[in-house]
Amino acid sequence: MNLGIIGGVGPIAGLDLFNRILLKSNAICDNEYLPMILYSDSKKIASRTESFFQNNIKPAKDIIDIIKQLQIFHITHVVIVCNTIHIPLFFDKICDFCSNNNIKVYSLVDIVEEYIVKNNCVDKYLLLSTRATFQSRIYHNILTKSQKTIINISKNDLLKIDKIIKNFKGNINDYAKYYKEIFNIINKYNYENIILGCTELSYIFFKLGIDYYIDPIELLSNKILAEYE
């Protein structure tokens, strides 16, 4: 396995996945670590949220251009460390390109579905994500298949979460402050578990040692290492 990690969406999320894979590895010398390439250049990838609401596929084209560059490193697997890019408007086109080039694409959404089905998890979830991810219903759809539900979040709270995600990208060291803002939102809702549907939020919860929610980045790092080692 040669893994291409496409970060920059946002930048800390790609590094977070890279670090989690390294720190969990059972490798005992340099040569035993998983070969990985982390590509992080935010300027080359259009806003996923804006593009979703404009029905614009440019983020998919941008990601495909990056994958083409990563092919010189002979990548066999790729992951885009952003939940919003998994909206079918973007993700289907990325997967079609990779399928035609014998590259396996990891899906954060599919990994969450596998986890919930395998572990017969609770029935009622709060999804913390960008507005685009929430309104695209990519997580709603996988949970419906398992007869589970995502509870509704007010438009005002979705906007607040979007703002927290945006502000965090400009000040990644103040994650405790942003968690308090998130807590004030989630405390309003009656849920049984939370899905961290934004990779920036995964980083915030991980840095604070809060591990009892469903974290796609944590699940993905476990899956990648299980397949490699």
Mind explaining what this structure looks like?
It is a single chain. The protein has 229 residues and is α/β, with parallel strands linked by helices. It has 2 domains: 3-107 and 218-228, 3-Layer(aba) Sandwich (Rossmann fold), CATH 3.40.50; 108-215, Rossmann fold (3-Layer(aba) Sandwich), CATH 3.40.50.1860. The chain has helices at 11-24, 48-53, 58-70, 88-100, 108-119, 131-136, 138-145, 155-169, 175-186, 199-207, 216-228, and strands spanning 3-6, 36-39, 77-80, 104-105, 124-128, 149-150, 193-196. It has a 4-stranded parallel beta sheet with strand order 2-1-3-4, sandwiched between helices. The chain has a 3-stranded parallel beta sheet with strand order 6-5-7. The longest helix has 15 residues, at 155-169. It is globular and about 50 Å long. The mean pLDDT is 94.
Q: Features of this protein?
A:
single chain; 229 residues; alpha/beta; Rossmann fold; 2 domains; four-stranded parallel sheet; three-stranded parallel sheet; 11 helices
Query: How many angstroms separate the termini?
Result: 10 Å
CATH class category name of the largest domain: Alpha Beta
Helix/strand class: alpha/beta
Radius of gyration, in angstroms, nearest whole number: 17 Å
Largest sheet: 4 strands, parallel
pLDDT averaged over residues:
94
CATH-scheme architecture of the largest domain: 3-Layer(aba) Sandwich
The domain tally reads 2
Give, in spatial order, the strands making up the sheet with the most strands: 2-1-3-4
**Coarse shape:** globular
Beta-strand residue fraction = 5-15%
Helix content: 40-55%
Low-confidence stretches: none
Which series of helices and strands comes N to C? EHEHHEHEHEHHEHHEHH
* Number of strand elements: 7
- CATH topology of the largest domain: the name is Rossmann fold
Output the number of helix runs.
11
